[in-house]
Amino acid sequence: MIVTMANAKGGVAKTTGAILLAMAWARRFEREAVVLDADPQSSASLWRDMAEDAGSGLGLVDVRPANLSTLRRAGRLGADGLVVVDAPPQGRLLEEAMKVADFVIVPTSDSPLDLQQAWATMAAIPSGARAAVLVSRAEVNTRAYADTIAGLDRAGTPRFDTVVRKRQEIKKMMGSLPDSSYEYAQALDELLEVA
Ligand SMILES: Nc1ncnc2c1ncn2[C@@H]1O[C@H](COP(=O)(O)OP(=O)(O)OP(=O)(O)O)[C@@H](O)[C@H]1O
Ligand SMILES: [Mg+2]
């Protein structure tokens, strides 16, 4: 299965989500999961490199750089396992990453202001591909969070029931081997149910 993390808006937890979703799958099935780093910012690759320098590595998660050719061939990798693509905010790599995906996850913050870009990203997903919004880094007791959920539901936007809460442990996780996959394990359950 190929899952692409995409949003035209930056800083919405695409990279964090890609690593933790792959980690959740790898730990669940005790098999290697691949993250394809298609973002020129290369944050996922940096995460892996830092974890290797620290001596832990990323366990069963393999982060590989991706270009148009790699993405077009991702089907072979994803045929029998999980490939999560960390997509860039725009351009041909984003288009290709959405085209090859079995499922597109559109992470969004808990701010209603960010919904326009989540919707624009959803609208750009090729017809036929399944997709849903994942509200991430959420502070669930806030008005902004309630308005975000209400906005998505009013618009009938497909979304994960799972909400990823804002956590200091996740914020500090970059460059290390995560102890837990947090709510991404529940997001994986939802994904496996529909896929
Ligand atoms: N659940 C969370 N709780 C707290 N902080 C989080 C959470 N998820 C992500 N973050 C933090 O939010 C910031 C943005 O996350 P991340 O880099 O994964 O987003 P991105 O969409 O990949 O950004 P970019 O557009 O720069 O690629 C990072 O500092 C990350 O550590
Ligand atoms: Mg990123």
Automatic annotation (TrEMBL):
UniProt-recorded name of the protein: ParA family protein
Superkingdom: Bacteria
SUPFAM superfamilies: P-loop containing nucleoside triphosphate hydrolases
Residue ranges constituting the CobQ/CobB/MinD/ParA nucleotide binding domain according to the UniProt record: 3-173
Organism: Bifidobacterium pseudolongum
Pfam families given in the database record: CbiA (PF01656)
